[in-house]
Structures are given as structure tokens and as C-alpha cells.
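Predict structure. Chain length: 284.
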Amino acid sequence: MPAFSEISFSGDQDGYIEEGEYLALSTITVRKGKTLTFAPGCVVRFMQYSGLVVEGTLKCYGQPGSPIVFTSANHRAALPGQKAPSPGPFDWNGITVVDSASAAVLEYTRVAYSTYGLDVKSPSALVKLAKAVFTENGHASVTVNGKQLDVKDNEPFTYSQPWPEMDTASAAKAAPAEKASAASAPVKKENGLKPAAWKMPVRIGLGVLAVGGICLAVFEHMQAEDNFKSYNDRKATSSVGQNEILTNQVNDYRHKNEKNVDLRNIGQIATGIAALGLCITFFF
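Prediction complete.
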């Protein structure tokens, strides 16, 4: 019979469960896309044939002096005038992480007197056990995708199924001095370089291209102006005297002017490409 201080609950649950003592009257289910978080110090007792089924995310962040406990409804002190019940293996079903689950975290968490302990049926779910303790679970303490792990009763157990080096909930409860380092998640590498590492050499190269293009465009523009002026002067003289030498000089200045214009255009195009490239590097 539950103590008066226990809060009874059952069925679909999500959100944050405050520190306290709870009695699961029937199976607790965390639906897909939902998250159920237990505060340090929570004690959850389960009635026979009930358990905890995780289809979404389960977060249990206990602390060394304030663990989270999932145990049998028989695991309690005696009520006044009554004999204390005796807990044992198979008293409740245990925690099941089904295939659709996203994550299950048990830090400083005890699972006691159940049938299956923690049964993970999802190869893709993120599973993290840190200093978790398992006590007298009947069939197994921890089973991952059909394989029973070697877990000793009442000894802290740590395990992870592919998990990022940092998870945000752990970082949130870290000491301020630890938060700065914990907040830096590992950077995924691409072709041996960090995602931002390629930007600096590319920007330098584009900057050199832009400066070179500007210099080329300005220089060739000035040369084109000079050659065009000389072309006009020689053309005027040539048309009056019909001098073959002057005519050749006119043609020479015209060809030089055309070449200067072409090179100026190349410089302008190079500058435009470099400017566009620099802009793109700030968006990726």
C-alpha cells in the first residue's frame, strides 16, 4: 500500500518530474517526439506488471548524493502497524527503450527489482549510462539489441551507444567553470579540414585576385587613354599628309588601344569574380 507522501501517476507522461516519491499504478509511456525528465532525488516505485516504455526521450540526471531510483512498489519502509513488504526480482517490468526512441540517459540512477532492468531495442537511439546501478533484476540488468551486458549488482556501471561527446543537459548542470569548455561541441571534419578552415586561404587567394584585377584594369585603362589620344593625333596628321609612316603609326596605336581595352576588361572581370567569391565565403 503506498505511503501518503507518494504521488500516483500512470499512462503517457512527458515534461519535468520534480524531486519526490512517485507510484506508477500502470506502465508509464514516453511517446515519440516527447521528453520525460526526472529530477535528482526522484524515487519511482512501480506496481506489478507496470514499467517504463520509452518511445521518445528519457533523461535521468541524478547526482552522487541525490540519485534517481526506479524500483518495486514493495521497496519501502513499513507503514505504522504494518509489516514491511519484501521486494524481489520480477516485481515490475523494467525500462524498455523501443525502436522509435531517440535517447535514454541514466546518470547516477538505480534500477532495482525489475524483470528486464534496462532493455534497449533500438540500435539508433542514443543511450548513455553513467554511474548507473542495477540491483536484483530478475532476467537481466542491461540488454542492448538482444545482447546482455556484463553488469554486476550494486556496482556503478557506465556505457554508451553512439553518443556525442557533450550533451546539452549535462552541460546545463555543469559548474560555471566547466560550461565554457563543455559548450564547445566537437567540430565535424570535412576532407581533413574543419568546416571553416578552408575559408581563410580561399579569401586570401580571392583578395590577391581582386587587387591584381584592380591594378590591371587601372593600368590598362590609363594606357588605353594614352594610346587613344596618340591614335587621334596621328590619325589627324596622317589624313592631311597621307604619309605612309604616320599611317602605320596610327594603326599601331589603334592596335595597342584595342589590346589595352581587352586587358582592362579582363582585369574588371577578375575583380568582379573575386568580389563575388568573397561574398560567398561569408554565407557558408
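Summary: Residues 7-175 form one domain.
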